Amino acid sequence: MLYMIIERFHPNKIKDLYERFDKKGRQLPHGVKYVNSWIDEKIEICFQVMESDSEEKLVDWIGKWKDLADFEIIPVLTSDQAKEKVFSK
Known about the structure:
This protein is of the alpha+beta class. Helix content is 33%, strand content 36%.
């Protein structure tokens, strides 16, 4: 399953976040795959697409970063998957 993760950086914690990332990497649990990410121009919000076999594993991953950012998890479909779902009804 694909998930859009919206990560809102805590003010004054962005350097800490990047330092942790440089030191420890993404820290993904087994079964979670990073697909891609984009960051707004103000460097306040990160939009990430992750693939995971369970939302619980994403919650575990967020636990390693929640002191530096707030997270929203949104299950998403690809455009092709959405079209197939619409026309399969």
